[in-house]
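dude i think i finally got it to work??
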Amino acid sequence: MDDLHKRQIRVLHPNSFIEDPTRIFRAIRFATRLHFALSPQTESYIQTAIASGIYQQIQNNGDKAPALQSRLRNELKYIFKLPNWPDALRLMSQLGALQCLHPDLTLDRRWWPQVKLALRWLQHFDPNEKHIAPWLMILELLLLTLSEPERRNVALNLHLGEHTQSRLSQFAIAQTQIASILGQSYKPSQIATALSTYDLPLLVEIAALSSLPLCQKIWRYLQDWQRVKPLLTGADLIQLGYPPGPQFKTILDTILAATLDGEIHTKTEAIARVHQTFPAPSK
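look at this
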C-alpha cells in the first residue's frame, strides 16, 4: 500500500533480478504502463544485475535457457505494444538495460525519427497488420542498429520468427541493391519489377533508414506503381485469338510495363500494343 501511495515499483529482494533477469523489463513495463517510478533501490538492483553480466551468460547459453529467452521476447512485445512505449525504451536506455539484449546496443537521435517514419508507413500500407505487427517492427529496427551477424544472433536468442531473422540477415545486401537500382534512371516498370521481390516490412525498414530521394521512390512504388494492373486480362487475350499458355504472362507483363512507363493509357492502346508485339497465331 505504501508503494501504491508513492506510485513506485519496488522489487522484493536484492537477488530478484539475478534470479530472473526478465524482471528488469517487467519492472520497466509496469512503471511505464502505470506512470509509476522505479524506487531508487530497485534501480540500484537493476544496475547491479546488469553489471554482473547475467544477461551475457543467458545469451551465451541460449539453448540452455529457452524459457528465459521466450519470456524476454514476450516482455519486449508487451513493452512495445504500450501506447507510451517510447518512455519505456528511454528508461531501458537510461538504465543500461539495452545491453541485456546486446553489449553494443545503443540508440542515437537519428533512430527516433526513423522508427516514427516506419510506423507511419506501416499504418498506411498495412493497417490490419497482415505483414507485420508494429511491436515487431520496432524491435527489428532496434536490432538493425547492430552489425550483421550480431542482429541475427540476438533474433535467434529471442526466438523470433524466420521472417524476422531473414529480414535482419538480408537487410544490408538488400539496402545496397535497392540503393543501386533507385540511384539510376530506371523506368518505373524496372523499379517495380526489382522492388516486387522484397516484402513490405523490409521495404519500409530500408526506406526509414535511407536517404530522402531513395525513400521517396520506395513510397512511389508502394503507393502507386505496385497497385497498377495490366489493362488487359487473360480473358481479353483469348477473345483476341491467343491460345492460353505460358505466353500469357509475357504478354500481360509487357502490357503492365508499358502502362507503368506511360506508353499506353487505354485498353484500345493495349490491344494495339499486343497485336504489334505479339502477332496472333494464324487460324
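The longest helix spans residues 162-182.
im so relieved honestly
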